[in-house]
């Protein structure tokens, strides 16, 4: 049976090494789940963090409270990052609050399952691509004039970009676009010593799962993640060391790559 806890207080036991001391990070989709866990880990590693989120004020407030309970510095700004002006506002807010941008983590996500391609509306297709693919590009474009040598861009895609998903056709496609843009940006920015990498999680237990699959399968918690070799879903806190690794200034010869955090479900590319 899947674990159904979303409690990122598991990061209380996270052992930091100061890898991101003095850095400023933007982490989107950070009011819960993976983004929240990454924001907390980055703060524990010494970064000052700005979290971007859509409209979950309570979740954003919880992320800030956890970070501050560890003595970290964090700010939050809400807004739909599928709109370019909100990405520009997030970067401007970060510069006003902390004076720099060193790390950009594009983690915002949206998915809505449909059992038939005929049920995917124009509006759903556009929204999915706006949140997953467009927002990533808009935020990178807004941040790029302010990124210096040694900056890091990290994009959260999905295992579905590699193996597909019969009920998440638009979502799989949007993540595929994110993978392609990550590799292209990496080629463009490598001579400027700006690394662009990503993580493609498999089944990770977050509020997004019950929010999007609960209507189709009220018992989603019973079997979610059982199809991977580990036989269970991952928890957000289990991914954060990979995000820290990709943000670490000492990780200077890796770009255009995706790490597959999926409980042993081998991906060939």
**Straight-line distance between termini:** 30 Å
- Rg, nearest Å: 17 Å
Strand content: 5-15%
**SSE sequence, one letter per element:** EHEHEHEHEHHEHHHE
Top CATH class: Alpha Beta
Q: Can you give the mean pLDDT?
A: 91
CATH level-two architecture: 3-Layer(aba) Sandwich
The CATH superfamily is identified as NAD(P)-binding Rossmann-like Domain
Sheet with the most strands: spatial strand order: 3-2-1-4-5-6-7
Low-confidence stretches: 1-5
Number of E strands: 7
Give the helix proportion (percent range).
Answer: 25-40%
Taken together, the total number of domains comes to 1
User: From the helix content, strand content and strand pairing, which structural class follows?
Assistant: alpha/beta
Which sheet architecture does the biggest sheet show? 7 strands, parallel
How many H/I helical runs? Answer: 9
CATH topology title: Rossmann fold
Q: Identify the overall geometry.
A: globular
Keywords: Oxidoreductase
Protein name: NAD(P)-dependent oxidoreductase
GO molecular function: oxidoreductase activity, acting on CH-OH group of donors
InterPro entries: NAD(P)-bd_dom_sf, SDR_fam
Short description:
The chain has 269 residues and is of the alpha/beta class.
What does the model show?
The chain is of the alpha/beta class. Helices cover 39% and strands 12% of the residues. It has a single domain, classed as 3-Layer(aba) Sandwich (Rossmann fold), CATH 3.40.50.
Which features does this protein show?
single chain; 269 residues; alpha/beta; Rossmann fold; seven-stranded parallel β-sheet; 9 helices; globular; disordered N terminus
């Amino acid at each position: 049976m899947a674990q159904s806890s979303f409690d990122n207080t598991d990061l209380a036991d996270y052992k930091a090494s100061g890898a991101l001391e003095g850095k400023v990070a933007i982490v989107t989709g950070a009011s819960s789940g993976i983004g929240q866990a990454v924001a907390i880990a980055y703060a524990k590693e010494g970064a000052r963090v700005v979290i971007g989120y859509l409209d979950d004020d309570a979740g954003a407030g919880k992320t800030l409270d956890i970070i501050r309970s560890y003595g970290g510095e964090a700010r939050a700004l809400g807004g739909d990052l599928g709109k370019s002006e909100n990405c520009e506002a997030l970067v401007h807010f970060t510069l006003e609050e902390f004076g720099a941008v060193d790390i950009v983590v594009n983690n915002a996500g949206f998915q809505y399952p449909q059992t038939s391609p005929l049920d995917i509306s124009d509006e759903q297709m556009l929204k999915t691509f706006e949140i997953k693919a467009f927002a990533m590009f808009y935020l990178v474009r807004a941040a790029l004039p302010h990124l210096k040598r040694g900056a890091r861009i990290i994009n959260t895609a999905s295992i579905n970009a590699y193996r597909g998903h019969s009920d998440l056709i638009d979502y799989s496609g949007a993540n595929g676009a994110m993978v392609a843009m990550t590799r292209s940006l990496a080629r463009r920015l490598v001579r400027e010593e700006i690394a662009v990498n990503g993580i493609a999680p498999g089944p990770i237990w977050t509020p997004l799962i019950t929010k999007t699959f609960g209507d189709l399968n009220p018992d989603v918690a019973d079997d979610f993640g059982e199809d991977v070799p580990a036989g269970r879903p991952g928890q957000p806190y289990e991914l954060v060391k990979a995000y820290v690794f990709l943000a670490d200034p000492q990780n200077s010869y890796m770009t255009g790559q995706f790490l597959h955090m999926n409980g042993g479900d081998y991906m060939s590319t």
